[in-house]
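Lecture 7 notes: from sequence to structure.

We start with a single chain of 220 residues. Read the sequence below before looking at the structure.
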Amino acid sequence: MNEVGKVDGRELRWRAHNTARRLALLDGTISAVRIHGRATGLSEIASANGVSTSVLYKYFSSKDQLFKTAVRHYFETALIPQMHAATSTEPDDYRCARAMITTYVDAVECDRQFYEFVLTNNDGNRDLVAESEQLIAELLGTVIEERLRALGMDTGGAAPLAFGIVGAVRMTVHWWVIERSISKDSLVEYLAIMLWGGISGIAESEGSPSKFESRPTPAS
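Now the structure, written as tokens:
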């Protein structure tokens, strides 16, 4: 083997090691957040990983980068696969919508420490919140687009509809986490009614704003 091949082989092994190490540190970060919640700092994360804080900076350029990457890792490896499974196993649109809402609410309830950590560490610019919302909205947008296309309907509104739905659901769940004035089951039912009402409107107008506008309005 020539010298170039040897160097390339070593570089590939180093990259693989570096990637595996970063993933392990991210898993440790999530574990630390589940224990310490919004109070989680670099010291708690380093302790959970059995390393010093200087090791964290070896793999992540800043605390913010570590936090943001950990949030994305959590959504990509935990919540998003669960939501994708929910959309894949339910036979009709209503049950699919309800399953996605239930999955999200369950995740917030079971991982409340992580949820509060995300909200606390957005530094006023909502980067962490926006990151998580975008991942969920992109998944939902894909589902909506596929369903509309299968029915021969206008798919142009899939993305804005998805982001609108995710924003409304997140704000409502955030209210519920603070107030707890209704049960989790009631929360899911109300959100499902709201979401299904929107889906019904989309179906009736075939996903077209112009067709929706041309419909007669309900009698007052």
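Residues 62-214 form a domain with the Tetracycline Repressor; domain 2 fold (CATH 1.10.357.10). Keep this in mind for problem set 3.
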